[in-house]
Specification:
The structure holds two protein chains of two kinds. Chain A is of the alpha+beta class. Chain A contains six helices and 17 strands. In chain A, the strands form four sheets. In chain A, strands 3, 4, 5, 11, 12, 13, 14, 15, 16 and 17 form a ten-stranded antiparallel sheet that branches. A three-stranded antiparallel sheet of chain A has the order 6-9-10. In chain A, strands 1-2 form a two-stranded antiparallel ribbon. In chain A, a hairpin with a 2-residue loop joins strand 9 and strand 10. Chain A is globular and about 95 Å long. Helices cover 30% and strands 35% of the residues of chain B. In chain B, strands 3-4-5-9-8-7-6 form a seven-stranded antiparallel sheet, with helices on both faces. In chain B, strands 2-10 form a two-stranded antiparallel sheet. The radius of gyration of chain B is 27 Å and the shape is elongated. The chains are: A alpha+beta, B alpha+beta. Chains A and B meet through helix 1, helix 3 and strand 5 of A and helix 1, strand 1 and helix 2 of B. Strand 5 of chain A pairs antiparallel with strand 1 of chain B.
């Protein structure tokens, strides 16, 4: 082992590092708990735990700087620390089996949280009665979708994540004959027809709107503060310009508040542009056959919410009917569908669609830790009893 | 030694943080029916919406108050009833079929709190009539708006690739009392260059 390797191993297997990391994680949990008041549970998870650094911005600018290590960094270092300590001090003996098991359990727990943070996905599926959809929508993420509708059988979708709008970077992509340039971006905003603004609203006091195509020129934008409330959703508005080889194609105002995409023609091809909730297409479709909202007789107290759905594989290989209600989700193709919301008056039901291939990891971790501790205590109890007997 | 430790920590840190972020993705999906903007929102821009305006003329009863064209409206009237109550008549045109007959009738039905009906039922509810100048589809629907019985009498016709919508909406008793006047009004709608 050369000097550098030795230094690496020493650094990562030291107990001092463990203590520092544990202290850091305590600080992280404390600060995050306080921050929850301001930015809500989801905001805290993203900012403090599912990040490598907790970032702040220089006052008056958008330049971020790290203020403390985030959950992934502390957790990652703890993991390396645990593994390397094991490798360097590993001794195979019956008296240590419990310790090893417990530590492996801890590793699985740390790794599990990391994996779940990356792979778990949460979507909503909003269905009108008799409607069939082959995609679900993200609860928080939005996308600019440019859809080439020219082909008679298939649509080609180019999805640009909202983060590109935040960064204001021009977007170019092989399958797009134009560049997408963000001219304005409001993370949360209200839009309304200028011709029917509520009384007392001054149209000139609204955010500048320099869109030229589609519905945009007739809309007013009033930016709202970004909400961290878990019960609310931010509805962004953006003004994007498409630049073709021969100059500007046009400037559109886009927002998930607009009910339909805006069509346009470019060099003989039909396109649509929309700012919508991020979609994930599935290899199957879901049809809402019937929704039920039962109440206890003579009262408005809900007794049961249920959605009767048919799930069909896209290739036609499978079709099945399922009734989804409280504590009775549908599991299909690695997804779990829960009854989430319902508006029986307007005939629609919202299902929560969760995919978490790593959901069993925390259970494995707990079992390993339990077995390890049981072994450790039982083994030492046995040894103690033997010694006492000998005396 | 501290310098070395710091270097090691830094290297490890960068290895950790070199993670990929969001990216643009493309995919193909089976052809989807595009949602269509409601006709009020569907027109390209104000300039286009008023292009070809006043290609039709009309004669209204003298007690109807002419509000003139504004915004999306090619024409507009206020029809007084008893007391302060008034009904509103609007004349709007859109390029193409503006989403189709069923979508538009169901949108009107929604405005008076009625549930949507199937395209067949929409067709069954249409009264077809011919004026001296064109074929007109007439519809009538009564529902509620904010607890007040509300009625829409509508006339729809196509001309030169445009769909025209004449919507007479207001408190049910005013619209019912003025229904004959509305039908007479629709018959006066005539192309300017006939």
């Amino acid at each position: 082992m050369n000097d550098l390797t030795k230094a690496f191993v020493q650094f990562f297997s030291s107990l001092r590092l463990t203590v520092v990391l544990l202290a850091l994680s305590m600080v992280l949990v404390f600060v995050a708990t306080l921050a929850q008041v301001e930015i809500g549970i989801y905001g805290v998870q993203e900012k403090f735990f599912r990040s490598f650094f907790v970032l702040a911005k220089f006052p008056g600018t958008d330049i971020p700087f790290p203020i403390m290590p985030g959950g992934y960094l502390v957790g990652g270092f703890l993991m390396i620390n645990l593994v390397s300590a094991h490798l360097t001090r590993f001794k195979l003996s019956w008296s240590k089996v419990g310790i090893h098991l417990t530590h492996i359990g801890l590793m699985v727990l740390l790794l599990g949280e990391f994996v779940i943070g990356i792979v778990q996905e949460d979507f909503s599926l909003r269905l009108q009665e008799q409607q069939t959809l082959a995609y679900s929508e993200s609860f928080r993420r939005n996308e600019i979708a440019l859809v080439n509708k020219t082909d008679a059988l298939e649509d080609e979708v180019i999805s640009i994540p909202e983060s590109f709008l935040t960064k204001r970077t021009p977007v170019q992509h092989g399958s797009m004959p134009f560049q997408v340039i963000t001219r304005a971006y409001y993370p949360n905003a209200n839009i309304g027809l200028l011709s029917s603004l509520p009384e007392g609203i001054d149209a000139t006091a609204m955010a500048p709107n320099f869109s030229t195509r589609g519905i945009g020129p007739r809309l007013g934008i009033s930016p709202l503060p970004y909400t961290y409330n878990d019960q609310e959703r931010n509805l962004p508005t953006a003004i994007v310009e498409l630049l073709g080889t021969r100059g500007s194609v046009g400037t559109w105002l886009v927002s998930p508040m607009l009910v339909a995409p805006q069509p346009f023609e470019y060099e003989g091809e039909s396109w649509e542009i929309a700012f919508r909730f991020e979609r994930e297409y599935k290899p199957f479709s879901v049809e809402l056959i019937e929704l039920r909202h039962d109440e206890y007789a003579g009262s408005n107290i809900p007794k049961n919410f249920s959605s009767l759905v048919t799930v069909r594989a896209i290739d036609g290989s499978e079709e099945r009917e399922s009734l989804i209600y409280m504590n009775h989700p549908l599991r299909y193709h690695g997804f779990t569908f829960y009854q989430y919301q319902m508006d029986s008056a307007n005939g629609f039901s919202v299902l929560q669609v969760v995919r978490n291939p790593a959901r069993w990891l925390p259970y494995v971790a707990c079992i390993l830790i339990t077995l390890g501790l049981l072994w450790q205590f039982t083994y030492h109890l046995g040894r103690f009893a033997q010694r006492r007997k000998a005396n | 030694m501290p310098a070395k430790t710091a270097t090691i920590a830094l290297i490890a840190l960068f290895t950790f943080t070199a993670c990929s972020r969001d990216e643009v993705i493309t995919y193909r999906v089976p052809k989807e029916e595009s949602l269509v903007m409601p006709p009020e929102l569907a027109a390209e821009s104000p300039a286009l919406a008023t292009e070809g305006a006043a290609t039709f003329t009309w004669r209204a009863p003298s007690h109807w108050l002419d509000q003139g064209p504004s915004g999306m409206r090619r024409g507009s009237f206020q029809v007084p009833g008893d007391g302060d109550a008034t009904a509103d008549l609007s004349i709007i045109a859109f390029p193409g079929d503006a989403g189709g007959m069923a979508a538009n009738i169901n949108r009107w039905r929604g405005q008076v709190g009625l549930a949507s009906v199937s395209p067949e039922e929409v067709q069954a509810g249409i009264e077809h009539t011919d004026t001296d100048y064109m074929h007109v589809d007439l519809v009538t629907m009564t529902g509620q708006l904010g607890g007040v019985p509300t009625r829409i009498d509508g006339a729809i016709f196509n001309n030169a690739g445009e769909s025209w919508f004449i919507k007479f909406m207001g408190p049910a008793e005013i619209v019912a009392a003025e229904s004959d006047n509305f039908r007479a009004f629709v018959k006066t709608v005539a192309p300017v260059n006939r």
